[in-house]
Model the fold of this input.
Amino acid sequence: MQRSEISFPYPALAGWRWPAVVFTGRRPGPKLAVIAGIHVNETSSIEAVIRLQRLIRPEDLSGEIRIIPVVNLPAVPHRSQYICPIDGKNINFSFPGRPDGTFSEQLAWALLDDWARDADCFIDLHGGDLCENVAHFTVAQQIGDEAFDRRNVEIAACFDAELIVRLAPSHLEKPGRSCTGRATRRQHAAFAEAGRIGIIEERNVEFHLNGVLRVAQLLGMITSAPPKSRAPVFVDEYLWIPAPHDGFYRYHVNPGQKVEQGQVLAVAENTYGDRLGDVRAPVSGYILWSLTHAFVMKDSFVMGLGKPAA
Ligand SMILES: [Zn+2]
Done:
């Protein structure tokens, strides 16, 4: 096991050093790169990579596991939600990044092009910023190549997910998640979400940790991993549902729940208790995540909805 603080040769990243660790197995094998903390309040996922470091035993490992426990270091002192405070961008939607872009874009580029360029699989763990409650789900970017797409779904299914989101190849055309950035390079990745409101919870930590172990098992790096307990539902569209009013919101559904088109998902009131309007499901599907804050501004997103294939 080798701990170090790594830096990247891009101007916006000058002076920054990321705590990282590499575990080298006794036998040769694949390379697995694991990150957390693109969103620093998504602590169950960060806790999972901390525990992962205690679990890996080089004598039981074939290949190499490298880990960056917290990617968004500038956000740590501020506990920033979603964004990197240096450029105000969401690193999560900055991949594949640019070597000549802003801090977030250069960091996304450095992670994929420098740090994980030779990795057989890249895992990015998320879920449950201060304002949200997230279902147990994974995202598999599709590129339209049957063998590649099948393998990305196989990797996504290593997590014991309620839902697996298959993102259409059209997502490759604009900046996106790390799994989308990896797919533009025809490289495999897993992207997992579980957690809520910035707290460490055992069921969410286990979802992440056991998922990473099952990916390592799938790659042939370790010989055993905890079994899964459920069959996922596949959804093929990720819809962001905006708030219809500024208001004080009450939420009527939970992450993972199946909802029907037109069903009331949340109700907006003013602070006299007058009903201003409803958030309704635009299509039938499954709740991927829900905001938990009561005060919500018009047009900000209150929920993610996964729409199953027609
Ligand atoms: Zn996140």
In short: The pocket of zinc ion is lined by residues 38-39, 42, 92, 126 (CB under 6 Å). The two ends are 48 Å apart (CA to CA).
